[in-house]
Amino acid sequence: MRDETTTGEAGGVLTLLDSFKRQVLERPDALATLHLEDGVTHRTTWRQWRERSQQLAAGLLVHGLAPGGRVAILSRTRVELAWVDVAVMYAGGISVPIFPTELPQHCARILNDSGAQLVVAENPWQLKKLVDIADEVDKPLDIILIDDVINLANGSTLSAAEFGLRAGRVTSFEQLMAQGRGPGARRLLVDVEPPRGDACVSICYTPGTEGEQKGVMVTHDNLVAASEALAAALPIAADDLQLMYLPLAQAFARTTLAVSMHVGFATAFARSYRTVFEDCASFQPTFLCGVPRLFEKAVESTDRALKSARGVKGLLASWTGAAAGGGGPFDDDGWIGTMRRDAYARMVRGELRKLFGKRLRFAVSGGAPLSEETARRLIDHGISVIEGYGTAETCAASHVDDPDEPTVGSVGVPVPGVEVRLLDDGEVCLRGPNVSPGYWGAHGQLRALTDAEGYFHTGDLGAIDDVGRLRITDRKRDIIVTANGKVIAPAPIVKALRADPLIRDAHVHGDRRTFLSALITLDADALAHFASTHQLTGGPSAWTRAPATYAAIETSVDRVNADLAPHENIKKFAILESEPRRPDSEGGGDERIRMPALADRHRALLESFYTETF
Q: How far is CA 255 from CA 184, 201, 247, 368, in A?
């Protein structure tokens, strides 16, 4: 088999597949993956991973996957996706991961744009999306189903057969592997040409500033460069164990899986984002990568545990001040105050160790900015959380902080091989071997994403200190990144809201938050007509506050939410009494105020969305 040697000269690494093969050759029986299933921990070695991926690759070839063919993957992160990822590389294809929360119509756009005909779907719930969009997809889909049955919240189950699919449209995961074990299939695999370094290995779709999904082409060169850079920048080795829970459609997660293949450490797959802390207790990772919301939940969970403690622990928590508000005040500067502070610190550290496991050495937060308060709480109590920075176009790997000396609020220095330039307005521009060659265009043609000098303009604004550490200060492009790392383009949401004649404008908020909210302004003429038809009394101010007006806007918000993914839904909104204007507007106030200024003006109102339960 061709995989018994790497394609680089003298065993060097030219592709991500070479990195994987090297681990199989040098450490065949070393642990590669772990996952929990029905309460049992399953372990896979590098040799076993290769065998399963080769069977899947041969099966994909039987299903007609051609060189450069696209295989879409619609599933949450699980160990099977790691096997499929390598299988697609063995078969010479290109993977197209899709977020499992995507709406059916968004899935259709990605499938049509990428030209994927083979789709790996996780379960009947994801399969239903594909069935629903069958008439919207340009080509008939060949579907591989990982799980035939899904367990519902009410305790019942739902099988794929209940959707009444035509025979032959769906192949089970086990059937695909069985097909790949056939002698004819294995011969097909032998004939596949090894990939080149500049070959596209994956297409990662981003929403774009106007909601136009753009497929970022990621090459083997990109992932190898990113893996080498992160391996040099972080204290990781082959005996480490990472916990993975982020969706592999996110560039951050995709790159961390590539790093595991490059370095050789094992990856434990969490059952879901809801079970991360339970899975940390089971697997005891040495490091993990997550979005800010994970670390916020760790702080919140620790505070709750200490406040609700009973018995001796409860008395100690109360005495140290933990029960009074998460740490104190400790206004006693004497030896008693010192003892209370030390006792509290030990209690917090113990609770955090329960959450993350006793072996955790550091964690990387990415996908969105981490609040300085959360970072300080964790670092001060023994959890070294650092920030990294990057975009899908840079394999999510351009900067990372130092776990041994973390700088709160900074994303660290550039990783080896990456050059950074700030424009006059502060926009961060990046150049390096990790930068994608372009966006997937019509018929696979490349659309450039760098300037004439090879720099990618990120759309983020930043500042660099005296030692080269980057601090992200704002965003130039109109994009929201939630605390869960979800990237959302607000423009299409605003456009959909403004389809209601009563809505003059809407300003969607949610950067670094757990959900979206909106400030809505009304059209004066439409409001007057609405007041007349609904027999509202008073003037514009009273009409704006009328229950009937709120109900009408709520209906519009619900209408828009129905066509959005769950993480894009507007959960709370307020109707402003007057049309916001730019303070320096010279044209009579027709220009709408920019979101940062509006958010600043209504800061208390926006904060109430996230601090009050209503």
A: 34, 12, 11, 16
Cα gap 595→601, rounded to integer Å: 10
Nearest to 219 by CA among 379, 446, 534: 446
Coarse DSSP helix, strand, coil percentages of the chain, rounded to the nearest 5 percent: 40, 20, 40
Q: What is the pLDDT of residues 295-350, one digit of tens each?
A: 998 988 887 777 765 555 555 555 455 433 444 444 455 565 666 666 666 777 77
355-372 tens-digit pLDDT: 999 999 999 998 888 989
* Lookup: tokens for 503: 């809505």
pLDDT category of residue 264 using cuts at 50, 70 and 90: very high
Which one, of 23, 14, 18, lies nearest residue 6 by Cα?
A: 18
Report which of 110, 217, 152 is spatially closest to residue 450, judged by C-alpha positions: 217
Number of domains in the chain: 3
**Same domain for 224 and 101?**
yes
Instruction: Write the CATH number for 403.
Output: 3.40.50.12780
Q: Which domain holds residue 416?
A: 292-358+361-476
CA distance 341 to 387: 27
